[in-house]
């Protein structure tokens, strides 16, 4: 008798897009703090750090035991874009820690900034290298590697790295414009996004919202023309994303649904910040309403993820 082939360990299929959950949780943490919900933000911060450390430990173990599986994700045209979610998570954790533990935040920010710079260059090099990418491979998730650089100045300026923050801001803003053209071309002129990628449409909201937050940090908190433009662009892309929200109703849960969380967190933070700078009660209350929606989104996504893990729906071959 011949031996039956053994099933590949589930660890080999632990997905790098799982780190998108940390982006949502860290965004929630920062939004809670910005809204004055200090105790809740500390609880969310502890949860964010615990989730990040757990995911990082598991993925490191995967890299040690199943390096070919990691290499396959790196070669995947969609999953490749999620690798910088690791470094962006560090930058966001540093942002959340900055108000209460600035020294720790500074060290984490430095590690995150170095990792983000390296991963950005590595992903961009992969994109323009010898591989053949097709238009159907493009999705809003492609914003993550390059546009994620705009996250760095939000904490970097206050932590004492203004010039480095300018470099990250420039990189993120330039590639936002470049990738926006590519993504819109793909969405308009080619096949619709596959069902499981539809939630990534929410990512369109994040670049201008985070860009607004970064810009007001870099320019000393002045609500100038560029700041207003970036916030207005956030609202434009929010409207566009809402027109596609109906497509989510019949989709089974997948990790891609976490793409809904960080854009809403960025929108919440941008609205609260705009309200404070413009002394606008309407924006303040809109930010509070967005925060409640964000809490509901993260809560639902957390429960759905736990249920999917219990059913064994995660870490399975595609």
UniProtKB/TrEMBL annotation:
Q: Which UniProt keywords apply?
A: Membrane, Transmembrane, Transmembrane helix
Please list every transmembrane segment annotated in the UniProt record, as residue ranges: 12-34, 40-59, 80-101, 107-129, 141-160, 166-185, 197-216, 228-246, 258-278, 284-306
Where does it reside? Answer: Membrane
Topology in membrane = Multi-pass membrane protein
For this record, an example GO cellular component is:
plasma membrane
Kindly list the GO molecular function terms attached to this UniProt entry: monoatomic cation efflux transmembrane transporter activity
- Stored InterPro entries: SLAC1/Mae1/Ssu1/TehA (IPR004695), Tellurite_res_ion_channel (IPR052951), Voltage-dep_anion_channel_sf (IPR038665)
Main location per UniProt?
membrane
- What protein name applies here? C4-dicarboxylate ABC transporter (Malic acid)
User: Which organism's genome codes for this protein?
Assistant: Donghicola eburneus
């Amino acid at each position: 008798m011949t031996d039956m082939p053994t099933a590949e360990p589930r660890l080999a299929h632990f997905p790098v897009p799982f780190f998108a959950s940390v982006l949502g949780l860290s965004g929630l943490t920062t939004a809670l703090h910005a809204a004055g919900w200090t105790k809740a933000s500390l609880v969310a911060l502890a949860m964010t750090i615990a989730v990040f450390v757990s995911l990082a430990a598991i993925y490191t173990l995967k890299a040690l035991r199943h390096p070919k599986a990691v290499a396959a994700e790196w070669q995947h045209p969609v999953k490749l874009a999620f690798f910088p979610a690791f470094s962006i998570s560090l930058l966001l954790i540093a942002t959340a820690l900055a108000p209460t533990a600035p020294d720790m935040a500074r060290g984490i920010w430095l590690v995150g900034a170095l990792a983000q710079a390296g991963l950005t260059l590595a992903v961009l090099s992969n994109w323009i290298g010898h591989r053949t990418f097709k238009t159907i491979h493009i999705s809003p998730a492609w914003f993550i590697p390059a546009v994620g650089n705009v996250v760095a100045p939000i904490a970097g300026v206050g932590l004492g790295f203004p010039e480095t923050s300018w470099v990250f801001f420039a990189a993120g803003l330039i590639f936002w414009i470049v990738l926006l053209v590519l993504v819109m071309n793909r969405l308009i002129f080619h096949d619709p996004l596959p069902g499981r990628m539809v939630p990534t449409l929410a990512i369109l909201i994040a670049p201008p919202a985070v860009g607004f937050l970064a810009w007001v940090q870099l320019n000393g908190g002045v609500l100038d023309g560029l700041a207003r433009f970036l916030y207005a662009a956030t609202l434009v892309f929010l409207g566009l994303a809402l027109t596609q929200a109906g497509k989510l109703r019949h989709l089974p849960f997948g990790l891609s649904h976490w793409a809904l969380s960080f854009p809403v967190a960025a929108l919440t933070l941008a609205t609260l910040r705009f309200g404070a700078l413009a002394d606008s009660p309407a924006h303040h209350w809109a930010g509070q309403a967005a925060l409640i929606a964000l809490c509901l989104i993260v809560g639902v996504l957390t429960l759905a993820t736990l249920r999917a893990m219990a059913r064994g729906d995660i870490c399975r071959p595609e």
